[in-house]
Specification:
single chain; mainly alpha
């Protein structure tokens, strides 16, 4: 494809103002939710860790790891929504407005593409954040230096496949369901949804997706927290889930489910609602 054709394609899908709006709205929504709901995320991480909730810190140092979470949140969320909106606008003309099935596939592909891009930014922050949450006695800077010294830069991308393996199934459930609920509600009331209504749809979609993908989230946490060279550190999700199932049963596989669903329910309400509310402001 030549440069002129690429420019035409970009203009047809997403102009620079829409790009900036998605970037800023997504980034602001992401960092707000991650900081506000961080204590619940810490509880979930410690509940899922190999050493158990109380040995991992219990309720002590509940904001350990908030700095890397905040630093990684803005670019991760911004990258997600820029990719999501661009891919959706690119594929929507091909899908056609009449087919709800094709629209669902469009939203799935857009969400999957967005997660792959966003996780490139999110993974290093997630590794440092979770290790800080599980070892509150160590500083974030010490954990970063130790990780790079012992594992190299590659250590910052430990669990990338497991993060993708959690986020893509999650988004394949959440975003098509969110878009479908918004469309359904909008048709019933006869006009476009308010931002709070979009937030309610986001919360419901998030709860459903969060519950279904809890085993994947548990495996991702264990892979990121595992010591280098161990079986879990190799990053095989199915093996980690099987080992936990064998030793702890269903309770272990769904460890951290309650705080995870709470985070995603509240986070879906705040994140998607804030995005829908703030994006027009930046246009």
């Amino acid at each position: 494809m030549c440069t002129a054709e690429k420019r035409k394609l970009w203009k047809r899908t997403m102009n620079s103002r829409e790009f900036l709006a998605s970037l800023l709205a997504g980034g602001c929504a992401g960092i707000t939710v991650d900081v506000v709901l961080f204590p619940l995320d810490t509880v979930k991480t410690r509940a899922q860790s190999q050493q158990g909730f109380y040995k991992a810190g219990g309720f002590r140092g509940i904001y350990s790891g908030v700095t890397p979470a905040a630093v990684g949140s803005f670019p991760g969320a911004a990258a997600f929504f820029v990719t999501y909106d661009f891919t959706k606008s690119l594929l929507s003309p091909l899908a056609g407005e009449a087919s709800s099935q094709r629209a669902g596939v469009t939203h799935m592909l857009a969400a999957a593409s967005a997660e792959i891009v966003a996780c490139l930014w999110r993974n290093p922050a997630e590794v440092i954040k979770q290790r800080a949450q599980a070892t509150p006695s160590s500083s974030t800077w010490h954990i970063l230096l130790t990780t790079v010294r012992e594992e190299g830069v590659r250590g910052l991308y430990r669990g990338y496949r497991s993060l993708i393996g959690r986020e893509i199934p999650f988004s394949l459930i959440q975003f098509p369901l969110w878009e479908y609920l918004k469309t359904l509600w909008s048709r019933k009331q006869g006009h476009k949804l308010h931002s709070w209504q979009s937030a309610v749809c986001g919360a419901f979609a998030g709860v459903m997706a969060g519950f279904c993908t809890t085993p994947l989230d548990m495996a991702k946490t264990r892979i990121m927290l595992a010591k280098a060279g161990t079986t879990a550190a190799r990053g095989r999700i199915s093996l980690v889930i099987y080992d936990v199932w064998r030793s702890q049963g269903l309770t272990g596989v769904f460890a951290g489910c309650v705080p995870r669903v709470a985070i995603i329910g509240l986070g879906g309400f705040m994140f998607l609602g804030a995005y829908e509310k703030s994006r027009p402001f930046f246009l």
